[in-house]
């Protein structure tokens, strides 16, 4: 029942996104990439979903560009 509830919640989120005006940003792309990981076979789905939102770079940045997390890594140079 818990998984069913979560899937319905995700479906409702996607419905709201589709009805919204404006262009999608990097967070929605990361979300969609994470959703694709759920269809993969194997035992690393949780890791793969987490990595879809994570910054893969190894070097720390000198100065933070904002004060808080934004939900996903915006990509190179952002």
For the terminal residues, how far apart are their CA atoms? Answer: 39 Å
**Main pleated-sheet profile:** none
User: Can you count the helices?
Assistant: 3
Mean pLDDT over all positions = 88
Tell me the series of helices and strands, N- to C-terminal: HHH
Q: Class by helix and strand content?
A: mainly alpha
Helix content: 40-55%
Strand content: under 5%
Shape: globular
The strand count comes to: 0
Task: Show the helix and strand layout.
Elements (H helix, E strand, L loop, with lengths): L1 H18 L6 H12 L7 H9 L25
Helix pairs in contact: 2-3
Give structural notes:
The relative contact order is 0.13. It is built from three helices and no strands. The chain starts with a helix and ends in a 25-residue tail after the last helix. By secondary structure, the chain is mainly α. It is globular and about 45 Å long. The model has no long low-confidence stretch (mean pLDDT 88). Helix 2 runs antiparallel to helix 3 (45-53). It has a domain at 23-56.
């Amino acid at each position: 029942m818990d998984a069913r509830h979560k899937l319905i919640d995700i479906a409702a989120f996607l419905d709201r996104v589709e009805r919204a005006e404006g262009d999608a940003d990097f967070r929605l792309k990361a979300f969609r990439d994470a959703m694709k990981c759920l269809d993969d076979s194997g035992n690393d789905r949780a890791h793969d979903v987490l990595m879809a939102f994570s910054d893969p770079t190894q070097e720390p940045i000198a100065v933070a560009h904002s004060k808080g997390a934004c939900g996903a890594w915006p990509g190179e140079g952002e």
